[in-house]
UniProtKB/TrEMBL annotation:
Top-level taxonomic group: Bacteria
ABC transmembrane type-1 domain boundaries: 103-293
Protein name as catalogued: Carbohydrate ABC transporter permease
Region (Disordered): 1-25
Transmembrane segments: 41-62, 140-159, 171-188, 217-238, 269-293
Amino acid sequence: MTDATRTAGARGPASAASVDPRTSVAARRAQRRRRELLRRWGWGVPLWLLALLFLLPFAWMISTSLKPDVDAFTVPMRWIPRDVRWENYLEVLFGEGSILPAFGNSVLVALLRVAGELTTATLAGYAFARLRFRGRGPVFIAYLATSLIPAQLLLVPRFVYFQKLGLYDSLWALILPGMFTVLGTFLMRQFFIAQPGEFAEAARIDGANEWQIFRRIYLPTAMPMISALAILTFVWSWNDFETPLVFLSTPESFTLPLALTSFTDETGAMAPGVSMAAAVISILPILVVFLIFQRRFVQAMTESALK
């Protein structure tokens, strides 16, 4: 054996022992970070592409709202208008067929429906979940069974009923039925059932009545679900077209979905520029409401999925 071989053999174990353990730990951390980065990009890129695909109709709507009518359906399409026409928005807001009265009607109907829905759904949901009374189960099943009836079958009886009450062609014909929904009661009942009952029992021992237990213990914990229900109710009311079409007849009482159908050109066809401008304006309140309550909405949906 040569001197060089003996020297290399002598240095081998020393070199292996001299490897810093922190180097291997850092290498493993770097490898985990690379895997995490690849995983995020692997999920993130397809989701971003899918989001952009869903946003294309909204981009087309905004682009069309800023074009003259003659350029709305040109092929190939120009996403950025050559002649930006802000007059479409001015006509929609302050022109002869302004949507501002209909906008105000929609806001009033939506707010009252949301307030009524949250009040009735939380109280009824708590009663079905936490109060003990005879026939609670059958009554709740019967209430759920009403959701099996198609809403279209109820339009004629409701029309006759509201006409006899003198509420036809008034906003109350839209507000009152929207204050009571089976889905809202069901969601709140399921939420209250999932909550622990120990705090309520302790409060009863301390002398609290049922209203105090509901208001001070269960209602604060239900805020995420209440926010989610408020968003759903607002969107349903804001986008409702069928019910106003049946119960409203005068333009002064129209809500926004009905008012959007009134923008036509001199030939009676839809005027794409002003129609899309009105549609853009009609979407803004929904975006504002969702942006305000989105955190609670996501929290409520996550908690419901986990439970």
